[in-house]
Write a structure and sequence with these properties.
globular, four-stranded parallel β-sheet, six-stranded parallel β-sheet, alpha/beta
Length: 311
C-alpha cells in the first residue's frame, strides 16, 4: 500500500515489533515519508522474578533489536508515559522529537451508545444482580498480576467487618489467576460478596459499567505499574462512575482525589480503605466525582481531541 499510495503524510507504527517496523521503515525511507513510532509500555517480563520462557526471551531480544536498529532512527517517538519519555530521552539524547501523548483514547459517542445497550444478552448466572439496590463494585480486566486486586479485597474485607457495610463485588476476569482470586476471597471471608464471571465481549463493558456504583482501577506491582499506563482509564472515566485507585504511572496527572476519583498513594492501605468506605456510605460523593470523571474523559481522553497531539 505504501509503495503505491500517494500523498501519505506520515506512517506511525505502534509497539516494538521488529519485522513490521523494519519493512515500514525501509519503505518510508525509499518514499521519503516521515516515519513515527509509538510506545505504550515496557515489556513486563523485564521485571519478572519468574523464570523466563524461550518466547519471553525472544520478545526481549526483539525489543532490544528494534530499539537499537529502528527506534534510534525514526523521525518522532510518541510515548504514553513519563517513564518511557525519560527512558528514551536518555537512550537517544540527540532526538528532540520524543513526545508524550494521551495514553488512552476513547470514542465517547460510541461508548455512550454501548452503555445504553441491553446486557441481558450476557448469559451468565447472577448477572441480574447488577440491577440490585446494593452498592455494586465492578472490575473488568486481567488478573495475571493479582497484587492490586488483593490490595482492594483486603480493604473491602476490613470495611465490611469494621462497619458492617453491604456491597457486592463483580469481577469480569479476562485471563490470569482466576482460581487464586477465588481462593483469596474465601480466605478473607468475602466469598459471599464476590461474584466472578467469565469474560464478556468488549462491547458489553460500557453497559456493565453503567450498572456499577464504584469502579476499581488496580495497580500491577511496583516497577511495572509505573512502566506502563492502565489503558482502561479512558473507559472508566467515560462511564461517569466513581473510580477507586492508587497513584501509579501518570494517573495523578489526570485523577484528583474527591474531584474525579478517590485516589490514594501507592501502598497506603489506610487511606485506600478510608476512600472505599467514603464511597460505600456516601451516594452524593459517588455521584459528584462521577460527574467529574466524565468531564475529565471529555477534556483529555476523547479521541477527537487526543488525536490532535499526533497531528
Amino acid at each position: 500500500l505504501l509503495l503505491t499510495k500517494k500523498n501519505v503524510a506520515f506512517v506511525i507504527i505502534p509497539g516494538l515489533n521488529f519485522l513490521q517496523g523494519i519493512v515500514a521503515f525501509i519503505i518510508c525511507r525509499i518514499r521519503k515519508i516521515p516515519f513515527y513510532a509509538e510506545l505504550a509500555d515496557e515489556n513486563g517480563k523485564k521485571f519478572s522474578e519468574e523464570k523466563l520462557t524461550f518466547y519471553d526471551r525472544l520478545a526481549l531480544v526483539n525489543q532490544s533489536i528494534y530499539e537499537k536498529t529502528i527506534l534510534k532512527r525514526v523521525d518522532k517517538i510518541f510515548v504514553f508515559t513519563s517513564y518511557l519519555e525519560n527512558k528514551y530521552k536518555k537512550m537517544f539524547p540527540a532526538n528532540n522529537n520524543i513526545i508524550r501523548t494521551i495514553p488512552s483514547l476513547i470514542d465517547l459517542e460510541n461508548f455512550d451508545r454501548l452503555a445504553n445497550s441491553n446486557i441481558h444478552e450476557i448469559n451468565q448466572q447472577n448477572i441480574d444482580l447488577l440491577n440490585s439496590s446494593e452498592v455494586k463494585i465492578v472490575y473488568a480486566g486481567a488478573c495475571n498480576r493479582t497484587n492490586g486486586l488483593f490490595f482492594f479485597l483486603d480493604a473491602a474485607s476490613q470495611a465490611m467487618k469494621e462497619h458492617n457495610l453491604e456491597f457486592t463485588i463483580f469481577f469480569f476476569l479476562v485471563y490470569g489467576n482466576t482460581d487464586k482470586v477465588k481462593e483469596y476471597c474465601k480466605e478473607i471471608g468475602l466469598d459471599d460478596n464476590v461474584k466472578i464471571f467469565k469474560p464478556v465481549l468488549p462491547q458489553y463493558i460500557p453497559a456493565i459499567y453503567s450498572k456499577a456504583d464504584i469502579l476499581i482501577l488496580p495497580e500491577h506491582g511496583d516497577v511495572i505499574a509505573n512502566a506502563g499506563y492502565p489503558g482502561k482509564t479512558a473507559e472508566l472515566l467515560a462511564s461517569g462512575k466513581a473510580i477507586l485507585s492508587t497513584s501509579f504511572s501518570d494517573l495523578a496527572l489526570y485523577l484528583k482525589n474527591e474531584e474525579n476519583s478517590m485516589i490514594s498513594e501507592l501502598g497506603d492501605a489506610v487511606s485506600y480503605k478510608t476512600n472505599l468506605i467514603k464511597l460505600l456510605i456516601n451516594k452524593n460523593l459517588r455521584e459528584r466525582i462521577g460527574v467529574g470523571a466524565r468531564k475529565t474523559a471529555s477534556k483529555y481522553f476523547d479521541c477527537k481531541s487526543g488525536i490532535k497531539l499526533y497531528l
